[in-house]
Design goal:
The chain contains six helices and seven strands. By secondary structure, the protein is of the alpha/beta class. α2 (38-49) crosses α6 and α3 (86-97) packs across α4. The two termini are 27 Å apart. The relative contact order is 0.17.
Length: 213
């Protein structure tokens, strides 16, 4: 009954907040607050280029909060440890299987922690690499080679991974690219204009996909 009520609350909130996004705050000591200019810049870009109507006042929500059901799209980033309690894992699972979408941007160092914690959320699901012909790479902006490389760390290829539930992509994870670094103010990382544009266009695709699937 509690899960049914939670899913009903989500469906009601989703109808009225269909174009809002939030940053996901987690425990464990990792810097969930990294890249503070990233989401506001991405929102501005997306509102201008693909005519979304996302609030520029980016909100933060905790994993265990019912407030996550206000947002069809959550962003998670950081460099360090991530920890989900059992209740947090269940809340995030309920959100995702009832229509929510999570974008994880590895800010270098997140990988082993986020993979471990998502196993609490979906013990039977495995990350799959998203092929370049997937719709997430073919929204308003086209990425025929898949996710773009933004920052170099370990000489590894940039990869986009996903978790699928009943055939629907519910989690998109950008790895070895630092996609959200490319959304930050230019002065922070001194990325060339063309690199920032690639990052912002890929971010816009993620938002467009999440809002329409």
């Amino acid at each position: 009954m509690k899960q049914f009520i939670t899913l009903l609350v989500f469906s009601i909130f989703y109808q009225f907040n269909a174009q809002d996004v939030a940053i996901l705050k987690y425990n464990g000591g990792g810097d969930w607050y990294a890249n503070p200019t990233a989401i506001p810049n991405l929102v501005s870009f997306t509102n201008q280029t693909i005519k979304t109507n996302i609030s520029k006042n980016t909100q933060t929500v905790a994993v265990n909060s019912e407030d996550i059901y206000n947002y069809p799209l959550l962003f998670l980033t950081g460099h360090g440890n991530v920890y989900f309690s059992d209740d947090e894992a269940q809340n995030l699972k309920n959100y995702l299987i009832s229509g929510g979408f999570l974008h994880i941007s590895d800010n270098y160092g997140l990988d082993k922690f986020i993979r471990r914690e998502l196993k609490k959320v979906f013990p039977n699901l495995e990350f799959q690499e998203i092929p370049s012909n997937h719709p997430i790479y073919n929204q308003t902006f086209k990425f025929p080679n898949g996710i773009p490389k933004i920052h170099e760390h370990d000489k590894k290829n940039a990869q986009g991974f996903g978790l699928f539930y009943e055939g629907r992509l519910i989690v998109f994870y950008d790895y070895e690219t630092d996609l959200s670094d490319g959304w930050e103010d230019q002065i922070i990382h001194n990325n060339p204009k063309e690199v920032r544009e690639k990052a912002l266009k890929m971010g816009a695709n993620i938002i467009e996909y999440a809002f329409t699937n």
